[in-house]
Amino acid sequence: MHGRQRGFSLLELLTVMTIMAILATVGIVGYRRHTRATKEAVLKEDLFQLNHCLEQFRADKGKYPTSISALRDQGYIRDIPVDPMTQSKDTWVTEFESPDPDSPDAEVGIFRIRSGSTDVGENQIPYNEW
């Protein structure tokens, strides 16, 4: 005589696997959203600090720097930060001031630094417009 076999039916296994897949999907989406929010917070802080250093440089020297590396070389920042959206130090976009028509030979400097990423942020504004 054989006893009744105990175990899980195929339907029970499929139900458990479906629930696990849903939970994993929710977890991955939440993780990605959190990672994106963290990168955006770092970008906001980096942009604030870099642009603040531009203004400090101008206040101290009477002109804007001609490159981001000048901020590092003159001691305004320890190192050029990595753009969290592009994962590179070399993709920062610099906006130069307009040349002075009375001094056409004068150097023009950087008055704003932006991210090099064209991706759109959580606020629906491209990162390179922040």
Can you lay out the helices and strands and say which pair or pack?
Blueprint: H1 10-61, H2 68-73, E1 93-96, E2 110-114
Antiparallel strand pairs: 1-2
Protein name: Type II secretion system pseudopilin OxpG
Organism: Mesoterricola sediminis
GO biological process, one term: protein secretion by the type II secretion system
Explain how this protein is built:
With 130 residues, the chain is mainly alpha-helical. It is built from two helices and two strands; from the N terminus they run H-H-E-E. Strands 1-2 form a two-stranded antiparallel ribbon. The longest helix is centred in the N-terminal third of the chain and has 52 residues, at 10-61. Keywords: Membrane, Methylation, Transmembrane, Transmembrane helix.
Gist of the model:
It comes from Mesoterricola sediminis. This protein has 130 residues and is mainly alpha-helical.
Descriptors:
single chain, mainly alpha, two-stranded antiparallel sheet, 2 helices, rod-shaped, N_methyl_site, transmembrane helix, transmembrane
Q: Give the domain tally.
A: 1
**DSSP E strands, number:** 2
Proportion of residues in β-strands: 5-15%
Name the poorly predicted regions: none
Reported for the largest beta sheet, the result is: 2 strands, antiparallel
Give average pLDDT, whole number: 92
Radius of gyration: 26 Å
* N-end to C-end Cα span: 77 Å
Shape: rod-shaped
GO biological process, one term: protein secretion by the type II secretion system
Transmembrane segments: 13-31
InterPro entries: Bac_GSPG_pilin (IPR000983), N_methyl_site (IPR012902), Pilin-like (IPR045584)
Protein name: Type II secretion system pseudopilin OxpG
